[in-house]
């Protein structure tokens, strides 16, 4: 099978496409033919091993001290089950699925084996493989943080980095739950976030939303550049900061702030659950949640896709088409 691999940390060119042995499912696993996967900012950070403050040593211990321990990136996918292990009963060959691969990564390959009891769910009806893949990472991250932040109808939320994969999903979910959304993004993404449901848009290049007059019940920071020290100025009493790209100090703040502050920091890794994927699929089928795709690249051009995502200007998701040929254009 073909797979995008990297054997050292570094720039986009360290990612190359090579032939690897196709995996075989264990008794509790599914073998999935990956049709589409996303290239997320997390993939870029791992490729460069540039992680949030405080996690450098831990990241090297988990992902590889001097070189990547797991050479295939990719945390989400849409594909088709082609074989099942002897202990699997609730999936069958031919099923279309969406999945999160967790810390093992591995979605940037033509085939992958995943635990049948992991974060896997039937693919939403009415979506193609590109759209289904674009639903997964941003959707599950937004859903998990908004739940932990206990967003409720009538509240106000500012989403920093509203034009990315997580931000696009968060706008739609927050609006669906009856919240008023302010999108923090560049002017080039104004039309997109308005279309998704943002009531107000702040151009971060012209205005610092943390120094304005507005106070928000929740602030979702998907970029990691609106820490507690700044965001607290824009929080309403008992407000919550959702630190999606949390540093170690922010995680510690999440533990100790409740001792003397009414405001909260919500941080920490997202849960990866099949039921969340199933809920996202239902919302997509109902027309509540619409995947946003910026660009699609064939697997052969994945280094170019890395360079594009690295610029930090993508709108929604960048999708890698595992079925495309090297000459396909989108």
Automatic annotation (TrEMBL):
A Pfam family reported for this protein in Swiss-Prot or TrEMBL: ADH_N
Enoyl reductase (ER) domain boundaries: 10-320
Record-linked Gene3D superfamilies: Medium-chain alcohol dehydrogenases, catalytic domain (3.90.180.10), NAD(P)-binding Rossmann-like Domain (3.40.50.720)
Protein name (Swiss-Prot/TrEMBL): NAD(P)-dependent alcohol dehydrogenase
Organism: Cellvibrio fontiphilus
